[in-house]
Amino acid sequence: MHPDKEFLLKLAQGFIPEPSDEELKYLALLNRERVTRPLVMVNSSISGVVAGARETWAAIESYVAERSLDIELCESGSIGLSSEEPVVSVQMPGKTRLFFSKVKAENVHSLLDDVIHHVIPEQMLIGQLRREGQEAWPDVPFLDEIPFFSLQSRVLLEDCGIIDPFSFPEYVARGGYRAFLQTIRSQTFSEVCDLVIRSGLRGRSGGGFPTGEKWKSAFETASDQKYVICNAEESDPGAFMDRTLMEGNPYQLLEGISIAAYAIGSNRAYIYIRSEYKDAIERITRAITELRSMGLLGDNILDSGYNLQISLRKGPGAFVCGEETALIASLEGRRGMPASKPPYPTQSGYLGQPTVVNNVETLANLPLILKKGADWFRGIGLPGCTGTKIFSISGRARISGLVEVPMGTSFGTIVNEIIGGVNKGRTLKAIHVGGPTGCMIPPHMMDIPVAYENLKEVGLVMGSGGVLVMDDKTCVVNTVRYFMEYVDRQSCGKCIPCREGTRRMAEILGGITRKPADDEGQTTLERFKGVMQLEHLAAVMKDTSLCGLGQNAPSPVVSTLKYFRKEYEEHIFDRKCTSNTCSELRTWYIDVDMCTGCSICAKRCPAEAIIGTPTHPYFIVQEKCIGCGICYEVCKFTAVYYK
Amino acid sequence: MGIQLEVNGSLIEAEKGETILSALNRNGLHVPTICSMKGLSPTGACRMCVVEVEGRENLVPSCSFPVEEALKITTHSPRVLKARKINVELLLSNHPDDCLYCERNGSCELQSLAENLNIRERRMPGNKSPYKIDRSSPAIVRDPSKCILCGRCVRICEERMATSALDFAYRGNELRISTTLGKPLNFSNCIACGQCLLACPTGALIEHVQFPELDSHLHAPGKVVVAQYTTAVAVSVAEMLGKKPGTDMSGIIRTVLLRYGFDHVIESSLGADVMIMEQVAVFQERKKEGSSLPLITSSCPAWVQYVEQYFPELIPALSPLKSPPQIGGSLVKNWLPEIIQAGDKEIVSVLISSCTAAKNEARRVEMTSSGIAIIDYVITTRELARLIRLSGLDLDHLEEIAPDMSVPGSGTAGNLTGVAGGEVEATSRTLYHHLSGKDILPSKLHRFRVNKAYREMSIKAGKQELRIASVSGLSHAVKLIEEIKAGKRSIDLLEVMACPGGCTNGGGQPLPVDDHLIRIRSKAVYDMDNGANIQEAHKNPHVIKIYEDLLGEPGSKVSRDLLYTTFTKRDVLL
Fold first, then answer.
1. pLDDT band at residue A2 under the 50/70/90 scheme
2. CATH of domain A381-474
3. Which of A214, B235, B350, B415 could be disulfide-bonded to B231 (CB atoms 3.0-4.6 Å)?
4. What's the CA gap between B202 and B520, in Å, rounded?
């Protein structure tokens, strides 16, 4: 099927208000409402690939080839169920599409055998996608009836995992690009800014700055060259919503960037993306090429007189390059270090020109806002904090993946209801939101409706949307130490509080999670000295750091000192880690009844802390033990245990 | 126009567009800074200058925050002081505790910050970054463990010297200042101008100290130690000895050095005078050849190295002469032994200079004569001050020893080479005489004394109209060179000084340095020249004697052997 370019462009511009029957048929084929042969889609984005989607794909290919079946095999993005990958969906002609989880290569055979013969393999089934004009499978739940999906409002992610990310016709056939093309014909720059201001859209990267205001400021700064930069750095470990959006629906982002560029009167846009995002880079690059060949990028777009170029720039991958001034420096070819604000990028940004930096999720909202209107968008979420927010859930959750909820939904709903809490037999201890510079929220605080101001009032942050679920087997202090070491490595090092502060904090926290080698001399005193400084240090780092990275770096410490102080005290005073995560705080013993006196533990002990005579039970000298646990690993008689 | 700010409860006036810091400073309110430097772009890195601004959630850095109407600022609230103190403590927690052994003990900005903030205890324990000292350069020693990463050296090297020998590398707690690929300084594109030494707040960048090595030569039988000092040193060292800035210390320097054990002390301006004589000859020769490029002076060693690295195509335009101290050194090694009848005694030649690049220059193969360095040791103004203190002499009651007139040892117009524009001013006098047979009134050349980076004037000498110019500060020089190469400017004689303001602002000069002090030093040089009986190099009796006894005439074979040098393209990591 070779879609007619002219037809697509007409469609995209809304020139076909009342399609003929033939056109409707064609449209249904394009948007896969109707398929003429079985369609099999494999999630080939990163969440699928790491679970083995490539092998699944190969298995499907050989299955089809062996039987010379007429099946359309196609790639898709992720539907957000990362822990259920590889997700494969199958659409038989006339029927609704079925989604299956954990389709490993070895399951392909039985799955396709069943589905082709209209039998449903229950154990792999997720559900069916509700769609008009398609016959539903009996006794199969619709996706929107499953708790994971039913409590979400998937606006941005609606097409993710459903459509072929490589197919421009499919995007257009589902209503894409109409918003942009109608805007550049009928609306002025400032009208678009005003519309976005009215919608109440706010930056999704954590700060929550009103997007429309930012645009307006750049629009009103006089200059003959302005820039839009899409921040696709997504540097928070544990955050993958931007990546999924780019891999699952690249045209949506590109349309959003086009709208933003138009709104500030810019004809040059960049996507700054981390080079590790290979799949996203490939998809975006192909999409840009496609848009150029369709005449939707370049000079004089569809005779509107508006020019726009979008280019992709790969960043070397640094946490700090997610900060807009550092990102701009990196884009200019300089060292990625933040600069003082003011001047703000909207006044003097990339190459000294007015520049708007928005992140992927923010920009992906725009085609929808322009298509459905500001009022529609304001209807979602809370007043003052409109729209939806995507959270990426990882950690000890029952389901990990992407969850899109209206603003104002509580973390409690997300964690307890949508993803079904923590794994069986465990209890929820906390969630950590906002990546390494985010904060830890205890269960009793999770009922707060999620909105920028609400969280800020109680000293918490929303962050970019990474949510790490922690159960009772996770040590709070150790997690915070890990984050602090991460930030310490990732700080650009420019300003003192961040560079030296994170390092000292990491050392202090390290001192808490480890047993001192000996209690002699100054070590204990120094350790306590450090602990006493933690809160002062945190206050000064927040107060004086140059950019958000340093200002927020102490927030894991601050929030845990507030809500999990007891755990700190246990570590400091009792030298005990109740979750048994901090291995060096464990106290090791040898069970005299089990020990055969084989002496292997004494030979392997690096601290020479085990004494005894062969064939008699051995003994651990606690003063010498460094808690490494090697004795436990080498003991063949399970005589070594810890408390 | 005026903006009103409320600072600590009282109103002050600020100007639109300026930063809070500059408004505070102008109104006599002192806020500590580390990374901020006058004339360089603000970075807001050190967070020392933070102040409390009403309505702002966090403290703001006053160095980069523009003033706004009705700002309410508190500069020394407990919150601000605590922030400053903890930040300095954080710096100290990664700083070696060896102040007593540090070159900058007493002149260190970190030390005085710690003192001012009353830090009396090491509250932040922790590991320190393990870095090695880089002693590879003969001019500059870099000790990264003392570096507090303010970035002043990086900015001065890039913005003012257009060299960028140093930049930040790595990140987080591994952040460090590094040369390209972390190579030692002597493999880098560093030109040893030493401006970074003046910028460095701590002892992370210091000169390669040589003066203790002198001791073994002083009083040693079989050795004659000859010192020559430059004019820039003579007018600056007073600052480090508790004297009024701008005092000419020539007499004291000579006396102390002789009492300390040096055998002869001469002025480097003698070499400058000889250089002027030769320069005029070279100029006329180039004119005859009809070169389109200006004759560019080669008396600044940092500039010479810069040309070799960055503009090798300009090497033919460089004057083939050695620098004045090297010419002086050449005379010391090749002629002085005859005058003083040294016999088979070894001559040790010491240069006291405001220049750190001179330390580099002294080691250049091109500067040796039959394989022997013509200057054995170079010590800076700062080292000289230390030597003078070490001598234990009471400077207020010192009986000055008069110059030994039997040894040619002083210069005239050559004194002017200590300031930017001075070399062309001094050369113009002799050149004018040479071309027209008449003397030019010195005041007619005062256009070379304006306090600007670029100074230019046309001189009509005889039938020739000459355009003579001087530029100081490499970033200005690079711009000018690009214009000359593009054919936008035509200049006959061009003086380039790497350091902004010339040798009075050299890398070896007393600390701290500011524009005002440099002007005082320059004025002292001009005063010296204005008060001199002889103001032209060609009238200097010592010069006349040197040409009679040794060189013959400018451009002679002997001159070429002793005073001329060569330059080569240098491939360095840029």
1. low
2. 3.10.20.600
3. B415
4. 25
For the domain with range A586-642, which CATH number is right: 3.20.20.140, 2.130.10.10, 3.30.70.20, 3.40.50.300?
Answer: 3.30.70.20
Rounded CA gap, B23 and B51, in Å? 13
Would you call B113 an interface residue with chain A, using a CB distance cutoff of 8 Å?
no
Q: Where in chain A is the domain with CATH 3.30.70.20?
A: 586-642
Give the confidence band of B281 by pLDDT, cuts at 50, 70, 90: very high
Nearest by CB to A500, from B61, B91, B170: name it.
Answer: B91
Chain B residues closer than 8 Å to A489 by CB: 171-174
- A521 pLDDT tier (thresholds 50, 70, 90): low
- Section B89-93 average pLDDT: 94
Question: Distance (Å, rounded) from C-alpha A46 to C-alpha A50?
Answer: 6
Q: Is B164 on the interface with A (CB under 8 A)?
A: no
Choose the closest CB to B173 out of A488, A537, A540.
Answer: A488
Q: All domains of chain B, ordered by start, with CATH?
A: 2-76 (3.10.20.740), 91-207 (3.30.70.20), 212-563 (3.40.950.10)
Distance from CA of B78 to the nearest CA of A (A): 12
Please indicate if any CB of chain A lies within 8 Å of the CB of B79: yes
Amino acid at A636: K
Q: Do A492 and B175 touch (CB under 8 A)?
A: yes
Residue with tokens 């004297």: B243
Identity of the residue in A337, A496, A536 whose CB atom sits nearest the CB atom of B91? A496
Enter the DSSP assignment of B396: G
Of B87, B125, B126, the CB nearest to A496: B87
**What stretch(es) of chain A map to CATH 1.20.1440.230?**
477-574
Residue of B nearest to A340 (CA): B44
CB atoms within 10 A of CB B515: 13
Across the interface, whether the CB atoms of A500 and B173 are under 8 A apart is answered yes
Give the right CATH number for A168-378 from 3.30.1140.32, 3.40.50.11540, 3.10.450.50, 3.40.30.10. Answer: 3.40.50.11540
Chain length of chain B: 574
Residues 6+ apart with CB under 8 A from A337: A320, A326, A329, A492, A494, B168
Lowest mean pLDDT among A359-373, B219-233, B281-295: B281-295
Give yes or no for residue B448 having a pLDDT over 80.
yes
Query: Bridge partners of B228?
Result: B266, B351
Residue among A330, A322, A328, A335 at smallest CA distance from A352: A328
Reported as a single tens digit per residue, the pLDDT across A390-417 is 999 999 999 999 999 999 999 999 999 9
- Yes or no, beta carbons of B174 and A337 under 8 Å apart: no
Q: What average pLDDT does the segment B199-203 reach?
A: 95
- CATH 3.40.30.10 region(s) of chain A? 31-142
**Residue limits of CATH 3.10.20.600 in chain A:** 381-474
ipTM: 0.88
Q: Does the CB of B196 have a partner CB in chain A at under 8 Å?
A: no
Tell me the pLDDT tens digit for each residue of A203-213. 998 888 999 99
DSSP state of A97: E
Plot region of B454 (φ>0 → left; ψ -120 to 50 → alpha; else → beta) = beta
With cut-offs at 50, 70 and 90, classify the pLDDT of residue A90.
Answer: very high
Longest dimension (CA), chain B: 80
Interchain CB contact of B145 with A (< 8 Å): no
Architecture of domain A31-142: 3-Layer(aba) Sandwich (3.40)
Residues in B closer than 8 angstroms to A437, CB to CB, are none
Question: How many residue contacts between A and B have a Cβ separation below 8 Å?
Answer: 122
Fold of A477-574: de novo design (two linked rop proteins) (1.20.1440)
- Tell me the C-alpha distance between B231 and B418, whole Å: 6
